[in-house]
Design a protein that fits this description.
The chain is an all-alpha fold. It has 5 helices and no strands. Helix 1 packs antiparallel against helix 5, helix 2 packs parallel to helix 3 and helix 2 packs parallel to helix 5.
Length: 137
Amino acid sequence: MTRERYDSDDPREWLNRARSSLQWARQNAPEIYLEELCFGAQQAAEKAIKGVFVHLGEAFPYTHDLEKLLSLLSQKGVRVPEAIWRAQGLTPFAFELRYPGVGMDITAEEYRQALVIAEAVVRWAEESILGEGGKRA
């Protein structure tokens, strides 16, 4: 099923992209390195967080640093739950761990945790953008 597409300045499109990256991260198969799936989890969280910026009508820096993005949202008065701050642990998946020889192999447990964190961030962004029900766009 193809999702309805929105303009890039519509936070629903950012949620669409976050959900798409989350689906990519869930594609656990023996042929796929867990580092690649964790990169998908990081991308899901990043796009979801940036969607909150778009929803607020605020510019965001072009960075993969999730701690920096969450800190900026917090400075703008957005309540960032403690569980969402765990997303900062996904940042290395955007850099060090997605290239050969730069980082360590990811364990199944680390992958599972990355997925749990990304799912929580996407849900939080949905609630922030679409309301408590987090209705799908």
